[in-house]
């Protein structure tokens, strides 16, 4: 889950690779996967689709026991809001979901009102800020 990812676990990221445009995505799911390389496109074995992944720099060390690297993978499931707007996540979002606009290499990202599917806060309304940002 994204709330369990700490910045020291992703400090060796040098780039995020997006496989699709995230402009219209309210959220993406993120996880730390054990992968055999620092930079190659990872295999994807979940339902749904992979929308992006992180590349690691040369200082990233593999696990001593498995020889794998922990890298972030960004993904969506078939019942997520982007494909099922009136479904289970019409409001709210999965625990591992974060707003892709808040992501950067070595920065874990965060939830926003947009990613949670909620209405704008009173502060946003007072400032005249509307979705989509």
From the spread of the alpha carbons, the general shape counts as: globular
Cα distance spanning the termini = 25 Å
As laid out across the biggest beta sheet, the strand order is 1-3-4-2-5
- Average pLDDT value? 89
The helix fraction, in percent, is under 10%
- Strands, total number: 5
Largest sheet, in brief, is:
5 strands, antiparallel
Count helical runs: 2
Q: What does the oligomeric state look like here? A: single chain
Uncertain stretches = none
Binned strand content = 15-25%
Please tell me about this protein's structure.
This protein is mainly beta. The protein has one domain (2-127). The protein has helices at 113-116, 122-127, and strands at residues 13-18, 28-35, 49-56, 69-76, 97-98. The protein starts with 12 loop residues before the first strand and ends in a 6-residue tail after the last helix.
Short key terms for the protein model shown above:
five-stranded antiparallel sheet, DUF6009, 5 strands, single chain, 133 residues, mainly beta
Tell me the layout of helices and strands.
Elements: E1 13-18, E2 28-35, E3 49-56, E4 69-76, E5 97-98, H1 113-116, H2 122-127
Antiparallel strand pairs: 1-3, 2-4, 2-5, 3-4
InterPro entries: DUF6009
Region (Disordered): 87-133
Pfam family, one: DUF6009
Question: Care to give the gist of this entry?
Answer:
The protein is mostly beta strands.
